[in-house]
Design goal:
InterPro entries: SET_dom (IPR001214), SET_dom_sf (IPR046341), SET_SmydA-8 (IPR053010). This protein is 29% helix and 15% strand. The chain is α+β, with helices and mostly antiparallel strands and 316 residues long. The protein has a four-stranded mixed sheet with strand order 1-2-12-9. The radius of gyration is 20 Å and the shape is globular.
Length: 316
């Protein structure tokens, strides 16, 4: 899809129709529109005034699932809890915490698909961390026609050899269907460009917070700023709530951030170059008074690790 107004209007309508299914938008109160951006390509422009704290939109995920990182801690693929894990007894080799989660309809499609990739000898008893890491792109195969149209029209970064699809192929017995492999690889590129880290609320005070990654149709349109005018959080349904962090006037672009905000300019630009494949030229990055502040990488994130975690947006 190009960036002419007819194409952007079509994408705008597709995003509205998708979220209407989950009753998180109301046409009569919409205050945004997909339009041409002065930052990069297309963006989300405000059509009414927002004050700090105002909710701009609630966004239902196209897909949500495990992050693709080296040291991913296991959790139940249905409820995302981390206790009493066992391998699904139907031999999809994904971790679940109970028969209730194993039998949940949300797990049915991915379970059947992965079972179909087992060899004639069946699957091992233990759950497989590689299938677990590839689960998010496997879930993309269940997207309906409208959701797939949106995915096709989102920004994509260049393909990479180290991706979830190749990982999956190396840990199943049967070959993937060409059309499935092609679509999942496209989804890898879309996720790399647009996925958000989804931090879920915990049910118990001492539980470790689960971090997923999700693809959100409206939020994917938000362009980056090192001084964004929004904040966001997630509810228990993994829906993203985006709120204004300062005054946004009609015609202004609504922005998010793709990098940790407390980094110095050099570190932010390095992070964005690795993860999003662009060199940031925003006003903050061009301000010489802050150019030498905090240019260390985030704690526990080396240069190499950033390359490995390419595509994940870090939270503010």
């Amino acid at each position: 899809m190009g960036h002419n107004m007819a194409d952007l209007d079509l994408l705008n309508e597709q995003i509205i129709r998708y979220n209407l299914q989950f009753q998180v938008v109301d046409r009569s109160t919409l205050g945004w529109k997909v339009s041409k951006s002065q930052i990069a390509g297309k963006g989300l422009l405000a059509t009414k005034k927002y004050k700090p704290g105002d909710t701009i939109f609630v966004d239902h995920p196209l897909v949500v699932g495990p992050r693709y990182i080296p040291d991913l801690k296991p959790f139940c693929v249905t409820c995302y809890g981390g206790h009493n894990l066992k391998s699904c007894s139907r031999e999809c080799r994904l971790p679940v915490c109970s028969m209730e989660c194993e039998n949940n309809e949300r797990h049915a499609a991915e379970c059947a698909y992965l079972r179909g990739l087992n060899g004639d000898e069946g699957a091992a008893e233990d759950w497989d961390s590689n299938r677990f890491k590839a689960l998010t792109v496997v879930r993309c195969l269940a997207l309906d026609e409208l959701a797939r149209k949106i995915v096709f029209n989102l920004h994509k970064i260049r393909s990479r050899e180290r991706n979830e699809v190749n990982l999956l192929k190396s840990h199943v017995k049967k070959k993937l269907k060409p059309e499935d492999e092609h679509f999942m690889k496209l989804c890898c590129r879309v996720l790399d460009a647009n996925a958000f880290e989804v931090l879920l609320p915990t049910s118990e005070p001492n539980d470790e917070q689960v971090a997923l990654r999700g693809l959100y149709p409206m939020a994917s349109i938000l362009n980056h700023s090192c001084k964004p005018n929004t904040t966001h959080h997630f509810n228990e349904d993994c829906q993203m709530i985006v709120k204004a962090s300062n005054i946004i006037l009609p015609g202004c672009e609504i922005t998010s951030t793709y990098s940790p905000l407390l980094l110095g300019t050099a570190a932010r630009r390095s992070f964005l170059a690795f993860s999003k494949e662009f060199y940031c030229k925003c006003l903050r990055c061009k301000d010489p008074s802050v150019s030498n502040y905090n240019n260390k990488y985030p704690q526990n994130y080396s240069n190499a690790t950033w390359k490995k975690e390419k595509g994940l947006r870090f939270e503010k």
